[in-house]
Structure formats: structure tokens, C-alpha cells
């Protein structure tokens, strides 16, 4: 395999209007925001990455401000001039900076993109190259859609009906105390056969165990992250009390966390967000943990632009990813995205993975500049 040498790295803070915002138990973001990375190699190859950071430290402790700062001051300087034999070398190069997984992920993604191109591979083939034989991509990713907290149950049912009509085969509903059991019962009554799941984003405590049992007879695909951010222990006390499978999102930051969660019986399923676990190198380790245990796995989302989405869809096409992913079509998120072609939902509820080398999408730099201008207009106090 050919190495790459990193010649320059640019970062862009961007904002884009959402087609439909996503209200969760911790709030709602006014815009899609991110810090994008453009990396150029000695040979002139260009790799792109996305840190899907938000304005508020609600889902992640990272924000637009922290990612901008940590990338500029610490992470980018650590990569400049480095020769990388494999993208899996990147975590060690960044290890002197503690934390900041979303920021680290953006750089690692850009390296995966450029390295794949240097080796004439799609990014999916680059992932498979780092896995045992038999883990080749399937060319498409099975996907669902995540629906935020709405003012009424009727509005929620209308959005679900629209999404089912578009062809999404799995519906995820955001819940919080007071917007949970009644909602789930009403939706199940309307749609008895759909793949349905709930995501609490850490809104409950172990004291709510009896209360949460009320959703147990609704044949849910899973209940995502009911308890504390970072918690594994209390989930291990809740899972045995529920028939419904618990899926962990916020609590899993590494392959070690995944092993611990499975050993303790804290969950049966993992939502793997490559950004949350600091990149695709750690994602590959979590993938292997799940495959070895025969545990269901799916790829989550952070409302990524086409840049992050392309890489996530590629990872989601690997055969160990067994459940529909939170990677919806471009038109679920944006009117105009930063890359082309857009991701379109296929009749079998999949997104096709681009066929070209690297990410396989074309980044439209004039759109990146527009999105940068929107961020600067809305948040003039920031860099
Ligand atoms: O909990 O999965 C989550 C978006 C932002 C923060 C947290 C979450 C989400 C989603 C979005 O559910 C899924 C998507 O990208 O479509
Ligand atoms: Mg979640």
C-alpha cells in the first residue's frame, strides 16, 4: 500500500439551513453546523473530513468553538508534514490531545479519503482492507429515519406517514419524560407492523425502570440510550428488567466500552457513530467486537453533510452492520448539500454507496464558501 504525506490542512466552520430540525430531549439546533477539513497531500490529492459538532454542548461536550480551537492549535499541527502508512496510524499521532473525538474524527476521515485515492480504492475498500476477509462492502446501506419531538402526536404521525411513503423501512422517535409512552402507543396503534424504535438521549434514570416497562409490549426494535451519558453500570441493571433490547449510543466511546457493555449485559445493540468514537480506526475495532459476538450493529448519524454522510454510508455498507442506519437521504436534511451527487433513497430503503475512489463524492467548494458565510453571519463573535 502507498503512504501519503500531508502537505496542508484547511478548516472551515460552516452553517446550513435544515429542511426539518430535530428536537431531542436536550434541545434543538437552529442550523446544521460542522467544522470541515480539507487535507492536501504532497502528490496533490485532496481528502475531506467533517467534525459534526453542534452549537450547544448537548449531545457531545464538543462544540463549534472547541473543535475550531483544538483543530487549529493542537490537532492540525500534529499531522502537518507527517507521512502516514495507513489511516490507522492517525490516532497515535493525535494521542497527546485528550478527548475531542469529533474533531479527531474529521482529520482521520480526511486521511482515509486521501489514502484511499492514493491506493486507487473506494473508502469502503479501504475499510475492508483493515478487516478480516469476508468483510467486503455490499454497495448500499440499509437506512431509516430519525424523527424529532413534535408539538403533537398527530403531527408526529403525519411525519411518519410521509417518511414511510418515501420508503423508509425503520422509524426512530425521539422521546423524553412526558413525550414517551402515550406517543409510542399511539404510533404503534397506527402502524402495527413497522420497525419502530425510541431514542431517549439519556433523559431517564434507573428509578424510571417500572415506568419504562410500559413500552415493553409494543414490539420495539430497541430503546436507545435511556439512562445517563457515559453510564454503563445502571444500563446493566435496567436491561435485565426489559424485554426490549437496549441500544447504547452516548455511553460507547471505544471498543473497550463496547466490550464492557456487552460483558455487563448493559445493552444488546450498539449505535456506532464514527465521530463519537474518534474515527474509523476505533469504529473498525467496535465493528470487530460486534461481529465476534454476533451482536446487532448499526451506524448512527449526526445530521452530517454529504461529506460525512459519504463516509458513514460506506462504513454502513459493511456486512457486519446488520440493522437499518440513521443515514437518511440528502433531502431529509438539506435543499442543497455541499457535495454531489445527492444520496437518494432506493425502493428497498437503502442508499447507494458512491463508486469512485475515496469518498466518491464531489465537494462543491462554492457551496462550502456559502455555508462558511452563513456561519460567520449568524455567529459573528466566533472565528
Ligand atoms: O442521538 O442519535 C442521536 C442527531 C444529533 C445528535 C444525536 C442524535 C442524532 C440523530 C440524528 O438521531 C440521526 C441522523 O443523522 O439522521
Ligand atoms: Mg441516539
Present as ligands are: 2-succinylbenzoate, magnesium ion
| Adjacency order of strands in the biggest sheet | 6-7-8-9-10-11-12
Distance between the termini: 38 Å
Number of spatially distinct domains: 2
Average pLDDT metric: 97
Nearest-angstrom radius of gyration? 20 Å
Shape: globular
CATH superfamily of the largest domain: Enolase-like C-terminal domain
CATH level-two architecture of the largest domain: Alpha-Beta Barrel
**So what's the CATH class of the largest domain?**
Alpha Beta
Summing up helix and strand content along with how strands pair, one would put the structural category as: alpha/beta
Low-confidence stretches: none
Question: Biggest sheet: strands, sense, closure?
Answer: 7 strands, parallel
Strand content: 15-25%
Along the chain, the helix and strand elements come as: EEEHEHHHEEHEHEHEHEHEHEHHEEEH
Percentage of helical residues? 25-40%
The CATH topology of the largest domain is: TIM Barrel
Query: What is the number of strand segments?
Result: 15
Number of helices: 13
